[in-house]
Design a protein that fits this description.
9 helices, alpha/beta, single chain
Length: 253
């Protein structure tokens, strides 16, 4: 039975109100599918954790640190600035002996840590200041980051008359900055694939969870774009878009 436009819109409005915490997209399991990158960030992070201390930048709700729990070194510290995520991460990680510090992390901000304080700095999909990363790393320490390429989902954004905000977020930009900060690049990998959705409601949830993608997005303000995507679905087209990630591993001499 065909769904009326009013029913579709009501469903999208419900999707817009669904809660999102930490960095957990499990609500979209089976409705948002991303091709797998050829490397494993978590496997490499686990290998590098054979040290005495680790810092996880912008931990979200602590999801990735929890996935690495069996590999934790003696000292584990995480940062998170967004209040709901800070509370979530603290509740999850602190009882296990980790320290969660509420502090912003950006490509310019200083961090409240001592020189050479950590043997390993992890960063998954968060901003970072290359000079600060180099400063807080101990000699022989490693920095591992997996990043969303600046042109991630450019075609999804274009469907809403939006453009990527950081198109130059690439290894070509950040690897030289890390080298200039005094680190040695150990590995750089890049990958492209597909980000696919089964229905327009899943896109609504995704865009509300990632508000930097289409600034100001709401169902009401962007209804004509959502309806255009629905027409694609009705015509039998896939809701598939460009995905791209990169990985950088660097070491402090």
């Amino acid at each position: 039975m065909a769904v009326s436009p009013d029913e579709l819109i009501d469903g999208w409005l419900r999707e817009e109100q669904q809660p999102f915490t930490g960095w957990d997209f499990s609500y979209l399991d089976g409705r948002m599918v991303v091709d797998r990158e050829p490397w494993s960030y978590l496997d490499r992070a686990a290998e590098l954790m054979a040290r005495s201390s680790v810092l996880d930048l912008d931990t979200g709700g602590g999801e990735k640190l929890l996935a690495l729990r069996e590999h934790w070194p003696a000292r584990v510290v995480a940062t998170e600035d967004y209040a709901p995520n800070y509370e979530l991460a603290s509740g999850r990680l602190s009882p296990l002996g980790a320290t969660v510090v509420r502090t912003p992390v950006s490509d310019t901000a200083a961090m409240p840590f001592a020189d050479g304080e950590f043997d390993l700095v992890l960063n998954r999909h968060a901003a970072f200041n290359p000079s600060e990363v180099a400063r807080i790393l101990a000699g022989g320490g490693s920095f591992l980051t997996q990043q969303v390429h600046g042109m991630w989902a450019w075609d999804l954004l274009a469907a809403f008359d939006a453009t990527p905000r950081w198109p130059d977020a690439t290894p070509a930009k950040y690897a030289p900055l890390l080298e200039a900060a005094g680190l040695t690049i150990q590995n750089v990998e890049e990958w492209e694939g597909r980000l696919a959705f089964t229905d327009v409601g899943a896109i609504v949830y995704y865009l509300k969870a990632t508000p930097w993608e289409v600034p100001g997005f709401t169902v009401k303000t962007h209804l004509r774009y959502l309806l255009a995507l629905q027409r694609r679905v009705d015509a039998g087209e896939d809701l598939a878009f460009h995905a791209a990630l990169y990985l950088i591993e660097a070491r402090k001499p």
